[in-house]
Write a structure and sequence with these properties.
Blueprint (H helix, E strand, L loop, with lengths): L6 H10 L1 H21 L4 E9 L7 H4 L11 H11 L2 H10 L2 H4 L9 H12 E5 L5 E7 L2 H59 L4 H31 L4 H68 L4 E5 L12 H25 L6 H5 L1
Antiparallel strand pairs: 1-3, 1-4, 2-3
Helix pairs in contact: 2-11, 5-8, 8-10, 9-10
Amino acid sequence: MRQRENLLDVVGLLLKKRKLLLRITAAAAILSIIVALLLPVYYKAGTTFLAASPDLTNPSKLFGGNEVSVYGTGNDIERLMGIATSEETMSFLIDSFNLMEVYDIDPDSKRARNDVREALSDLYGVKRTQYDAVEITVEDKDPIRAANMANAARDRVASVIRRVTSNGQGDMANMYTNSIAMKKIRLNAIQDSLKVLTQLYGIVDVQSQKESLSGLLGLTERNLTSDSVKFSRLKTMRVGARMRDTLNVLEARIEAQRSMLVQLLDQLNSFAAVSGTVEALQTELEIVSEQLAYDQERLRQFETMGSTNGPVIHLLDIAFVPDRKSRPVRWLIVVGSTLAAFLFAALGILLIDTYKDVEWKQFFTD
């Protein structure tokens, strides 16, 4: 093995082998030029958009008087990116643009679907920009198809988000529709029960009627007590014919008041027996009516949102047809390959010259 003393020895050896070095480098340059010229030309088109806040399709946010966000947060951005790279979006692009034929894949092959997905994945990109926007890029040999695919992918993402949102709103609308129907049935049942009790017991307003009966009962009791005391006092006194008439009137009035008192007690007992039920039904009627009004308003909100289709993305840039290729960068391939060939050839010359005195056979015979 020969040792090189300094850099001059290395340079001298390379100069000595310059013809071989130049031939190898020239051959690599020519080969790289041929390869670079044979490589297909690809064009890249991209579209950029922002995530819209779910508040824009949420009736409780829009009609609730709360502050509404316009742009989506990190989770909303990740959701868009997930849909953009989902199987549904990829399959949509494959089928819409007949990519099996474009990528020259046999559709009858068992791995046809997997192969076309892999081919598309190499040319299809989704990323989150530094400004929290979503960027979809597509590379293709045809610049028009590249732009169309990028725009179609973006529209598909928006369509999926809108469909999911619409389905959710539809489910909520159906829930409120069923709730309204059940509340109407219960409301009719309560109204029928109140009508029966009102007609049977004459109860319209529990509180006022209760106060009226209680007041009338108290007044009758006071009058009865007062007349009874007067009658007792007059009865112990000597009275004339005129006073006897007064006693007879008092006695008749006392009997009438006693009879009225019995009737009032009966009415109060009957009233007390059903007043709790009537009051509970009236309270429930008020609650159910308020809930029914709330559900009807919510249903109108969901129906309004379903007909307007609020924004799910905010478009920043559509994909234009690119007028410059994205790859290959031919000069970089040629320069890089030529430089690499020169360096490896020089290294090979140095190694061969350094170890040319080594008896390699002894390593295999020992």
